[in-house]
Design goal:
By secondary structure, this protein is an alpha/beta fold. It is 30% helix and 22% strand. The two termini are 25 Å apart. The model has no long low-confidence stretch (mean pLDDT 95).
């Protein structure tokens, strides 16, 4: 039987960060990836990472603090986040940002995004990040990567410790031994109709655009050995995708964080557009026929950010996904909503902007506590039909601050660690943009550091 110090299940950002961390510590590692390429859901993401007190913020004149970052996380999470996990993230986030740069990950720009009080959405190209980490792995000789190698079960020794993985490769089942631990970094279950039906039946009808391998395998394997689950009651879809996003082009736009409003097919607003887009997804899914539109004017269009995964509104226009009209009357006709209702909705919203108080939903900012809304009055006017998609599940096995998987009593399951989307407890009832990729990198490294504490590098 083959033996390694660590076995990592999954080759997304969490798994790749773990593999690099382990290899540089001198450990012998086997990384098993279910798909035929690395990346997982990471490469489908918008590429934002949530960090505070970075050099990019300093250069942009943005004053931020770790304390503010954590306060925002807890507020967005409804206060039900595991605060110990949030604190652990805070302790490691800036060092992890630096570590990623040192390993060739390029941060392209900085934006204000959902859940943040200041601009701290640091944007990466997910493909570039995965490839940079892979290049580092190839420079070393102590990591073995096997593609098309799905893990099947976790096995315990006589002492009750997880020390083996049963997996399949080329149609053959194999068992491999891990002397220091197994790290589950296999993602969530956004593509498992069975698990979505069990844990999120309210999302039937949402687009399914998560990673193909995200079937909840890691959650199942951990649960077999007593893992507790967290955050499942808060599962929501992600808002802002065009209805065609289930196809090859996953067009998404969050114009509401630049000043757009959201209206249903009756032409009425139905939510405070500055809140987390996971919560916006819940509100949008409750609208008649589950149809809604983002509506904005040229003032918002001028805030389009070139090549940004969420804010490139001009790209949506070039893809012919926007309705554009010189008058609200024509726009209402385009999207088939009652003109008088749409006009009243926008007039009431604009008056609220002028008065400094949204009378209907209390919107005071563009996103969370950042930015000031502007009236929708400058032609041309735009509308973007938007729907809800299951991109990532943000709920799963419970872990402690050492990234150890724990049972319902908070006791570690010996030899078993987890990082990334497969874990629950960190996000709570909402979702702050960038915190998912952020926790992948932070806790992927923590898992390795804890598992390898007994290794003496010679």
């Amino acid at each position: 039987m083959e033996t390694y110090d660590l076995i990592i299940l999954g080759g997304g950002l969490a798994g790749m960060c773990a593999a690099v961390e382990a290899s540089e510590a001198g450990a012998h590692v086997l990384l098993l990836e279910k798909q035929d390429e690395l990346g997982g859901s990471t490469v489908l993401s918008s590429g934002y990472m949530a960090f505070a007190r970075t050099d990019m913020q300093e250069q942009a004149g943005i004053i931020d603090s770790t304390e503010s970052l954590l306060e925002d996380m807890i507020e967005v999470g409804g206060g039900v986040n595991d605060q110990d996990l949030v604190e652990a993230y805070g302790q490691q986030q800036l060092a992890t940002y630096t570590w990623l740069i040192e390993h060739g990950v390029e941060f392209r720009s900085l934006e204000a995004v959902s859940g943040h009080s200041v601009p701290r959405g640091h944007i990466i190209d997910p493909h570039q990040a995965i490839q940079s980490l892979y290049r580092r792995i190839k420079q070393l000789s102590n990591v073995t990567i096997r593609l098309n190698a799905p893990a099947q079960r976790l096995l315990k020794n006589d002492d009750g410790r997880i020390d083996r993985v049963l997996y399949e490769v080329e149609g053959e089942e194999r068992t491999v031994h891990a002397s220091k631990g197994v790290i589950i970094a296999s993602g969530g279950f956004a593509k498992s109709e069975e698990l979505l039906g069990q844990f999120a039946p309210q999302l039937k009808g949402a687009l399914r655009i998560g990673g193909c391998g995200n079937q909840g395998d890691g959650i199942r394997m951990a649960c077999e050995h007593g893992a507790w689950l967290k955050d499942l009651p808060y599962l929501n879809g992600t808002y802002g995708f065009h209805p065609t996003a289930a196809g090859p082009v996953k067009s998404q736009g969050l114009a509401f964080y630049k000043g757009a409003i959201m209206v249903n097919e009756l032409g009425k607003r139905f939510v405070n557009e500055s809140i987390s887009y996971k919560l916006l997804g819940k509100a949008a899914f409750e609208q008649p026929d589950q149809v809604s539109f983002q509506v904005w004017d040229q003032t918002v269009m001028d805030k389009s950010v070139h090549d940004d995964p969420l804010y490139d509104l001009e790209l949506l226009k070039r893809r012919r996904l926007l309705y554009q009209a010189d008058t609200l009357e024509d726009l209402a006709d385009c999207i088939d909503v009652p003109l008088e209702v749409l006009e009243e909705t926008i007039s009431r919203y604009n008056q609220g902007v002028a008065d400094g108080e949204d009378p209907d939903f209390g919107r005071k900012s563009l996103t969370h506590n950042y930015g000031k809304p502007t009236p929708i009055e400058k032609a041309p006017f735009f509308a973007f039909e938007s729907t809800v998609a299951m991109l990532a599940t943000y709920a799963g096995v419970s872990v402690n601050t050492k990234a150890q998987v724990v049972n319902p009593y908070g006791e570690p399951i010996l030899g078993l660690f987890a990082a990334g989307e497969v874990t629950g407890g960190f996000h709570g009832a909402g979702y702050m943009t960038g915190s998912s990729l952020g926790k992948c990198a932070v806790f992927g490294r923590i898992a390795v550091q804890e598992a390898l504490k007994e290794i003496i590098v010679k």
